[in-house]
């Protein structure tokens, strides 16, 4: 069966092709009765607009900018790699993507980076939940730029979409894994994060503490250490926690910097069984799962997130709906037994 065209929709609805185009692109000059006829025809014919053809017809090309953290965060480097890997696909879609790195832990620096962005149709940003960042995001939108947040959200901003996992659920999952791995043992659990100013870290921490407090009264949570996702700092924090707490039996790394934690544990080698749960799958976390240094890794697919951000930005620029089910990012749990 041939694919329905915009001309087929116009003929069935009894209107002009221009009217169908205005309905598809959220035009405000279409009479309500005609709009209903067009919408009914679209449903009856199962019509899906060819976004690329429409873009070519209008002579449109899109430029997107991805704002990612600077530093040694392995997962963020994975996001940058995925953007580069999709260059050929984007070119076929008449889309160009650039990457800018900045200090996302510094609200002023991140806001200044966003304020400096001009000439782009869409921006995807790993965001800090801060008023200055919120205003910078809203400023981009006011200048006609579509914005999605990536991995870490700023829910108070007028961004079009958040691309990432349910981080509260991820934190609760980590707590349940921790409690079950410890199997009724009593002792202390250490927590390390990048910064609670990052919404994803704050939500994971909240979910973890919530489950621990409700279900594992025999475990005592130590004060959170915020180490800016730095491998050297998380490694030192791990060494300090082990030296100061002989009854440390669990460690949860809320953010990045797992490389430093793994290096510290291999150097110190605790004499008792230490349950360690971290985020994101990398060569180092994979090896650490295999040798037992890490107990479990909670992950999200960087390729899915980049593809999702690109799809959402293109849909917004083309004035097309976002398919929520397609853009839902799943939480993956990896043990040494189910590594991909």
Task: Give your account of this protein's structure.
The chain is built from 14 helices and twelve strands. With 340 residues, the chain is of the alpha/beta class. Strands 6, 7, 8, 9, 10, 11 and 12 form a seven-stranded mixed sheet that branches. Strands 2-1-3-4-5 form a five-stranded parallel sheet, with helices on both faces. Helix 10 (199-215) links the parallel strand 6 and strand 7 (219-221). Helix 11 packs across helix 12. It is elongated. The relative contact order is 0.12.
What's a quick, concise take on this entry?
The protein has helices at residues 6-13, 17-24, 32-45, 51-58, 74-85, 87-92, 107-115, 131-142, 167-182, 199-215, 231-244, 258-268, 283-290, 302-317, and strands at 62-69, 95-102, 122-125, 146-150, 161-163, 187-193, 219-221, 225-226, 248-253, 275-279, 296-299, 332-334. With 340 residues, the protein is an alpha/beta fold.
Mean pLDDT, all residues:
92
Describe the biggest sheet?
7 strands, mixed
Query: In percent, how much strand structure appears in the residues?
Result: 15-25%
Are there runs of 5+ residues with pLDDT below 50, and where?
A: none
Helicity range of the residues?
40-55%
Give the CA-based shape: elongated
Strand pairing plus helix content: what structural class?
Answer: alpha/beta
């Amino acid at each position: 069966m041939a694919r329905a065209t915009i001309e087929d929709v116009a003929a069935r609805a009894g209107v002009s092709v221009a009217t169908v185009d205005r309905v598809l692109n959220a035009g405000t000059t279409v009479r309500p009765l005609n709009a209903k006829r067009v919408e009914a025809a679209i449903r009856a014919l199962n019509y899906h607009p060819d976004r690329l053809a429409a873009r070519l017809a209008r002579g449109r090309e899109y430029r997107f900018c991805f704002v990612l953290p600077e530093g040694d965060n392995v997962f963020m480097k994975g996001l940058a790699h995925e953007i580069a890997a999709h260059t050929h696909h984007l070119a076929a879609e008449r889309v160009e993507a650039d990457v800018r790195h900045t200090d996302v832990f510094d609200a002023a620096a991140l806001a200044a980076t966003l304020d400096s962005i001009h000439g782009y149709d869409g921006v995807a940003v790993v965001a800090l939940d801060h008023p200055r960042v919120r205003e910078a995001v809203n400023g981009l939108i006011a200048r006609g730029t579509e914005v999605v947040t990536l991995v870490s959200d700023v829910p108070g901003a007028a961004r079009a979409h958040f691309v990432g996992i349910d981080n509260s659920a991820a934190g609760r999952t980590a707590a349940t894994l921790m409690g079950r791995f410890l199997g009724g043992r009593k002792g202390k659990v250490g927590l390390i994060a990048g910064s609670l100013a990052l919404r994803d870290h704050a939500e994971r921490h909240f979910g973890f503490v919530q489950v621990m407090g409700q279900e594992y009264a025999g475990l005592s949570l130590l004060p959170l250490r915020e180490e800016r996702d730095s491998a050297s700092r998380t490694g030192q924090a791990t060494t300090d926690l082990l030296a100061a707490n002989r009854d440390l039996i669990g460690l949860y790394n809320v953010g990045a910097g797992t490389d430093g934690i793994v290096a510290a544990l291999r150097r110190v080698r605790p004499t008792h069984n230490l349950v360690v749960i971290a985020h994101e799958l990398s060569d180092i976390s994979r090896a650490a799962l295999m040798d037992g240094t890490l107990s479990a890794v909670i992950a999200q697919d960087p390729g899915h997130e980049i593809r999702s951000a690109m799809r959402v930005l293109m849909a917004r620029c083309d004035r097309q709906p976002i398919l929520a089910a397609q853009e839902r990012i799943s939480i993956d749990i990896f043990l040494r037994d189910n590594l991909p």
